[in-house]
Design a protein that fits this description.
Length: 357
């Protein structure tokens, strides 16, 4: 994945007074599964549409293999898009849907037949060619939409929340199908979603966006385990985000107690955000915890118990395979390696100091 295929250079896009993307730069490697992840309105779909040629940036350039394609129309780009709504032609059978783009390109009948057979096999729908779209399930229709895109042999496949209309089981099945297709086809996937689980499951690289800005770029492991700011930590999975003071290297104070950590370089008595994942909170007997609390809420989630624990004036979210009943007194410990320290925005520094004092 070392070859830079797509390079977005200082992209800005506004609709009226609303700036959706603000001076964004991002490159995408060949054969990479890159996911644009963020809440509604963060600019991820606009970014995808700019790559696809459906929108033109107000400023900046879109480079493809070193060539400027900023003003190139969608049908002239080496990419195809799969939308959430499938966009199948309801009056055509499956074969004709898949063949549509190939017929426009003037391909021979034999070439088209071979490609249809190949595409149906790839999406595990052999024998479905003569059926009509309305006879298929949502998951099957989505596979046909993907088959129609890949027969054109694009270098890049753009997917705009393609699994959003599917139920949970179908969505999970299609996640594995997309990973398999990406590995078999050897093409670049650019995927848009607001679903954190989808992003973590499928991606080589995740780009977390908010309000038109990139918040963090990294592998799923990096994004989850080493969030760069409180937005990323809060958006990617559940987190306990607590005001703290970095007393010195490898020692942080929050909720009236001092916790050893492994972070360095934050300075002395520096206001920070402390991020602790629910699964990293260790519940023990009250006398063995750094701070003491009371279980206030309990839900069985199947693979673990989800509990809320009031401790130090903060309601902790805890995931544990051990069950502590509501009302139980518990102690809280956290392994130093599982405490993530992040700088606060400058505007919050003074307020955080006064609160901790």
């Amino acid at each position: 994945m070392s070859v830079k295929l797509i390079d977005l250079q200082n992209i800005t896009k506004a609709y009226g007074d609303n700036t959706v993307i603000d001076d964004m730069s991002l490159y995408i490697r060949e054969n990479e599964f890159l996911t644009l992840l963020g809440p509604s309105g963060c600019g991820k779909t606009t970014t995808l549409r700019i790559i696809g040629g459906f929108e033109t940036p107000d400023k900046g350039r879109v480079m493809f293999n070193g060539v400027d394609i900023t003003d190139l129309p969608p049908n002239k780009r080496q990419l195809n898009t799969v939308f959430q709504k499938y966009a199948l032609f309801t009056h055509m059978n499956i074969e004709d849907n898949i063949a549509f783009g190939l017929k426009i390109k003037g391909k021979s009948d034999k070439y088209i037949r071979d490609k249809i057979e190949y595409a149906l096999k790839l999406v595990n729908l052999q024998g479905f060619g003569k059926r009509m779209p309305d006879s298929l399930s949502g998951g099957q229709q989505q596979r046909i939409a993907i088959a129609r895109a890949i027969v054109n042999e694009p270098k890049v496949l753009l997917l705009d929340e393609p699994l959003g209309a599917l139920d949970l089981k179908l969505r999970q099945d299609m996640q594995y199908e997309l990973i398999r297709l990406k590995n078999e086809l050897g093409i670049t996937f650019i995927y848009v979603t607001h679903d954190q689980e989808e992003a973590l499951t499928m991606s080589d690289t995740i780009v977390v966006m908010n309000q038109g800005y990139i918040q963090q770029i990294g592998t799923p492991e990096d994004i989850y385990n080493e969030p760069e700011n409180a937005f990323v930590a809060d958006f990617i999975g559940d987190s306990n985000i607590i005001d703290g003071i970095m007393i010195q290297d490898e020692l942080v104070s929050f909720l009236g107690a001092k916790f050893p950590c492994v972070d360095t370089g934050f300075g002395t008595n520096k206001p920070v955000d402390v991020v602790i994942r629910p699964e990293d909170v260790i519940l023990t007997s009250p006398e063995n915890g750094v701070i003491e609390g009371t279980v206030t809420h309990l839900i069985f989630k199947g693979v673990h118990y989800e509990m809320e624990v009031m401790a130090g004036g903060y309601e902790w979210l805890v995931h544990s395979t051990m069950m502590f009943p509501i009302g139980a007194k518990v102690g809280i410990n956290v392994d130093p390696f599982n405490i993530q320290i992040m700088n606060k925005p400058e505007s919050e520094d003074e307020e955080a100091v006064s609160v901790e004092e």
